[in-house]
UniProtKB/TrEMBL annotation:
Name of the protein described by the UniProt record: L-idonate 5-dehydrogenase
Residue ranges of domain Alcohol dehydrogenase-like C-terminal in the record: 205-322
Species for this entry: Arthrobacter globiformis
Gene3D superfamilies reported in the protein's UniProt record: Medium-chain alcohol dehydrogenases, catalytic domain (3.90.180.10), NAD(P)-binding Rossmann-like Domain (3.40.50.720)
PANTHER family the UniProt entry points to: SORBITOL DEHYDROGENASE
Span list, region Disordered: 99-126
Signal sequence region: none
Annotated Alcohol dehydrogenase-like N-terminal domain residues: 46-166
Protein family according to the UniProt entry: Belongs to the zinc-containing alcohol dehydrogenase family.
Taxonomic placement: Bacteria, Bacillati, Actinomycetota, Actinomycetes, Micrococcales
SUPFAM superfamilies: GroES-like, NAD(P)-binding Rossmann-fold domains
Length: 325
């Protein structure tokens, strides 16, 4: 008797016609109200593929929507499916023939850039679509109606969001592609870091990825800061040369970093970033601060002529990250 085994791609493609009409999804309803809801799987548009979500990373914004009902200036006004750090496989290709075929492993660029509407729409640089006022993002309450995310079994996504991955890339690792792109963009905002001293405030997932990107970019000395031992262990494993406890303000001030990446997302971290920067240095703020005024003493930014830069999401860096992986 001869046994035949379908490839994973063939099996997935064969199952494409058997998609359910609904499935479980992680939904934030309000502050402290997180549920697993059964949500409908609607018919995809002609340029949309159906993705089976296999891995998802939990972003800080996902936690903020759940715990606080808001992420920065984005406030929940209705239930929101969370999730934008995902990897998976195409189970049904786009009907218009564009994009990857069924069975293809993919990562996702969650943004849909778009200009604002009306004569008073905010202006933005054309080469920085992440700043476009009409931009939407999977799993974001920045606009209303909100843009549902991808923490569900299946999700319809436009093919322009999809990035085909090599079969050799582990899909669990691939779930880090989106946050790694955020880190890559933050380091790019700092300029050329080769041969420089870099200080990373906050060594959580984004901070650890920033350390790895700084190492790849040629930083000569990388100092990682956090309140807890485990994040500092991870930072060391991915390239930090030194670690400091966030409570040791004097040690942080002595670093005198050419480049500081603030990834903690709180005003204490931003104060440490300013104090740890060398005169004429650059501070990149990638950690999302809470909404409202922040009690940060910024006089040193004036007297030391520090360049304070924001870093928001990313653009095409996702393709560089995939190539690097």
């Amino acid at each position: 008797m001869t046994h035949t085994t379908e490839s994973s791609a063939e099996t997935t493609a064969a199952a494409a016609t058997e998609l359910p009409v609904s499935g479980p999804a992680v939904v934030a309803h309000a502050k402290g109200d997180l549920r697993i809801d059964d949500v409908p799987l609607t018919a995809p548009a002609p340029d949309e593929a159906v993705i089976e979500v296999l891995y998802g990373g939990i972003c800080g914004s996902d936690l903020h929507y759940w715990l606080h009902g808001a992420a920065g200036e984005s406030i929940l006004k209705a239930p929101l499916v969370l999730g934008h750090e995902i990897s998976g496989r195409v189970v049904r290709a786009a009907a218009d023939g564009s994009g990857p075929a069924a069975g293809t492993p993919v990562a996702v660029h969650p943004a849909t850039p778009g200009p604002g509407t009306g004569p008073d729409a905010p202006r933005y640089p054309a080469d920085r679509p992440n700043l476009s006022p009409g931009c939407t993002y999977l799993g974001s309450a920045a606009r209303f109606p909100h843009t549902d995310g991808a923490f569900s079994r299946y999700v319809n996504l436009p093919v322009r969001m999809l990035r085909a991955l090599p079969e050799t890339l582990d899909l669990r690792t691939a779930a880090l592609i989106e946050p790694a792109s955020v880190a890559w963009h933050a380091v790019a905002r700092a300029g050329d870091v080769a041969g420089k001293t870099a200080l990373v405030i906050g060594s959580g997932p984004i901070g650890a990825l920033v350390v790895a990107v700084l190492k790849r970019a040629g930083a000569a000395r990388i100092v990682a800061v956090d309140m807890h031992a485990k994040p500092l262990e991870i930072a060391t494993a991915v390239g930090a040369d030194e670690t400091l406890n966030a409570a040791d303000g004097e040690a942080i001030a002595r670093v005198q970093a050419d480049v500081v990446i603030e990834s903690s997302g709180n005003h204490h971290g931003l104060a440490s970033a300013i104090q740890g920067a060398a005169r004429g240095g650059t501070v990149v703020m990638v950690g999302l601060l809470p909404t409202g005024p922040q009690p940060v003493l910024i006089s040193l930014a004036i007297t030391r002529e520090l360049d304070l830069k924001g870093s928001f999401r990313f653009n095409d860096e996702i393709d560089e990250v995939i190539t690097a992986l």
